[in-house]
Amino acid sequence: MATIDVLPPTWSSGELLSAAKLNQLSDTINALKGATLAPCAVFTRSGDNRTWWMRRRGRYLSVDYATIGSSQSSTAVTSIRINGVTIYQSSALQPNGYTHVIDLNALASPPALGAWYIIQVHYTSVSQTRTETRDIRETSVGGNYTAPSAFASGDSAAALLANLTALSAGCTALSAPAATPSATWLRATDSQIYALTRRQRYLEVNYISGGTSPSVRILIDGVSVNNDTTARPNGYSVIVDLASYVSVGANYSLEVRRGAGSTMLLQFFRISEAPPIDYAPSWTHGEQITTADVASFNAMRTALNNCHAVLADYYMARPSIWAGGGIVSNPRWALHKTKRYLHYMRNGSTPATLSDPGGTQPDISVSSTTDAQPFAVYDLDTIDWLAPGGLLLGYQFDLIWLDDEP
Amino acid sequence: MSTRVVLARLFVDWNFDGSYDDESQYLISASGDMALTPPGANLMSAGGIISQMQLIMRNSSGRYSPLRTDGALYTHIRDGKSYHAPCYLEVSVNGGSSYARIFTGVLKLPQERSPSPQQVPIATFDARSMEERYLQERVSVLQSTFAAQHAAGYTESDYINAWLQDVGVPAGSISRDPGLFVVPWSWLDDESVIEECWRLAAACGGRFYADPDGTFRYENMARWQSAARSTSAQLAITRDSMESFELQLVDSDLYNIVTVEASPRAPTGVDVIWQPDDLPIIPPNTTTTITAQFDAPAAAIAGLQFEAADDGGNSRTANVTVTPTYYAQRADLVVINSSNVRVRLYPLRIIGQALVGGPEIEERRTASANQAFFSTRGDRTLSVRNNAYVQTRSHAGSMARYLLDRCEYPRLIARCGGCTGTPNLRLGDRVTVADAPTASSTFIGYATSISWTMDSGGFRQDIELIQATQLFAYDNNYLVLGTHTFSSNRHLFY
Fold first, then answer.
1. B414/B438 Cα distance (integer angstroms)
2. Which domain does B169 fall in, by range?
């Protein structure tokens, strides 16, 4: 999908109600509806000192972490660095978790919009202390969405105008959330927790398992939803109905837990749900507007409210974990092609490759990056066998990121 | 048939101080015209019609003579100093109880004729409406403005308003309808504001012109169905109030298939958007301005990178400052070399996001109301492409429908000659014509051209009209926001 320009029309008393403006409004609402179908950003949790990268789009960066002491002598100093500069340091234990919010605009050298920046969360702790970086989210300023009033057949002329104005205002409020995030993930071969946000109802988790005692357990927010002890050498999907565990728009954790004696490789996860039936209609010149058209106007309202229910009030993205430098051995990545450009980092002797999960197509080797040019871009539209939404596997990348912009 | 002109008043601001001199007593005659381009015609090519006036002035005392040092206006006339002097002409047809302006604009240069046995000495002035004053003024939009206008969802009306104010047109001299289309990306790069206003207005089915009161008007394509002057008749012409009446069916814009292409644009990623072909060399202790012309407009500027070195290869970056002013499609870089050696700038680059064109979108509309006409005559296709201001599918679709409705029937134009002059008649006014020998019922149209003459014989007008019902299928039956409701059973405009 491409970047969405959310530019709804304005309305004023005395002007003619035009199909052009109504279509512009419908186009905007339907584009927003499309944005609700995008996958959410994925954060790979870690208990160690780790590095994440992201391309700046928003204003605020929230870092969720926990430092849990197991004895009176437990200590931990948590440091958050942006582009190598420490901007937060705390020695307080946070056994219940803590969220530190950073206003990127307030930094002495804020990363520019569209620029890459590096986030490091480091812990100085004794052995009795357990640490965990649970989630990092970049968000925009809130859009202040207000649900538009319903159109009614008895609406006065002023109410009709006010309701149209409210629809346009609602679209504008969703302009930031409509920017969809990068959604890539590191394929775990051991127990791993990811942070996600519920956008749709179903979460499909696909993995391969084997070993002397196959065991893969899936947990949502710590609650076990599937415990599979069957060997799955050809891949196996578990579809979780998130409605039982997480409300729409809420952040949650997905844990893929490997049992002792089991081997495991996470293949992919995918969110899905049939799109709502409501969409904004098309309008044509000369159409006669009568009380029978109230339903068409309300279809726009319903579709917009549905968008807000999923997109919420903020743009939200999560950084991609840096798996280079031997931190992860032979890192494996995956993504669904929901954007055109694959940004990546691969600074090492073994070239990174992109692979067809079906094993039919030949692997694609990509050029390596350097310290001077840490990122490179691959245009996924050049892969003729990769359809929109198709699964693509990556090997040896230090980091990958999907973007609409090169 | 004509109406005797009771009074006419001509005022000129010879010295541009805002104070007008009354030149009425020297006025022998005046004539002029104002016109609108046919609706939709300018979508394919930019252009507008500047109203004009010709004044014939009595010059017995050498008042308007550029070489008569004793002339009363010699200091204002000599050396072409009257060029673009503001002027206006008012006419009263009721003995001076009220005047209506029939022209506001600026003078061109005078032409003088010496006395002869047959004729008194005269001076002739041509004048043009207020577009002339600003026609040559060119503007480049700042990049920050360009990006902010995009973010704010500017419509064609918003751009026109901003551009006019950029060249100094007072806000009080601008009258504009609300914009109908969000034009996502629009900028000026050393371009004539007036020409771009014409082009943008036409791309949106509207009209841009300066009216007889000197006001710059943007009228959107709904204007003739929403403004009171266009929805109710302002003038009723009969056989008694005109000398001639002509009807003409025109086939110049006759099509049953219309295709309008939209050219969307999108920002690229952050990259180098400009770097010089050659190494800029800055002499010692000098200030140099470098113009950086971008290949494509910059949706965003991320920064400027440069290093400076002398010819010996030593860094001189500390001695050099580069101050950029970013416009949408270029930057002016003021480079100050404060060292006493010449320096080369390398690298010198501007980083940002270019705005590039995406795949074109085509919207095609085919005649339905008059298709039978074409089935016996063959298809005629109008293709409108490469209009930079049509950038969205909905815009292209609306324009295609709008053009098709205007093109699927031969256009009916009425010309009323020698009409009794109505000084307050304006372009776009609804006019009725009753002429039983020509039409069984009253012809209703919009005034698209008014030519006028004011002399000792009176004040007369030739008026050209375009038929209202042919332009709008639901004439006076569209839904007006703030007035109508669902129960009004009105129709959607384009």
1. 11
2. 134-221
